[in-house]
Design brief:
The chain is an alpha+beta fold and 136 residues long. The chain has five helices and three strands; from the N terminus they run H-E-E-H-H-E-H-H. A three-stranded antiparallel sheet has the order 2-1-3, with helices on both faces. The mean pLDDT is 88.
């Protein structure tokens, strides 16, 4: 019985949920929101739930969802990342790189989408410096 339990636990830990990049596409105007997750089914369900509940973190996407309705949006997987190591591997850094690739490819900013452009290294360093000066 203990061996069976160990085998089941090992199998569970080795099975990774699908992970990768997804988009939420507005079918009325073509705008997209791009995101990444180590658990794609969970992320898609979570986004859909938040939008339906009126509590999504992206206010523009939320407003358009509320105005147009669920049937005007598609949830799509753009890319999947395969697990190549055991259960202890953290794939988030790989997902960040893959998400950056898709953000650069699609450019879902402004009139094209709901994402905000990420700040470059120089901009982030300036913000850190300003925060440190204001805390002194």
């Amino acid at each position: 019985m203990a061996d069976k339990k160990k085998e089941l636990k090992k199998a569970y830990l080795q099975n990774h949920p699908p992970m990768g990049i997804y988009q939420i596409r507005n079918l009325a105007n073509g705008k997209v929101f791009v995101g990444s997750s180590p658990n794609l089914p969970g992320a898609l369900n979570s986004n859909k739930f938040q939008l339906s509940a009126g509590s999504h973190r992206n206010k523009t996407l939320q407003r358009e969802w509320s105005e147009l309705g669920e049937d005007k949006f598609a949830f799509e997987i753009l890319d999947e990342l395969s697990a190549i190591e055991g259960a202890g591997k953290d794939y988030r850094p790989d997902l960040v790189v893959l998400e950056d690739f898709w953000l650069d490819k699609i450019k879902p900013y402004g009139d094209r989408g709901y994402n905000e452009k990420k700040k470059g290294t120089e901009e982030r360093l300036k913000i850190i410096a300003q925060n440190r000066l204001s805390n002194e």
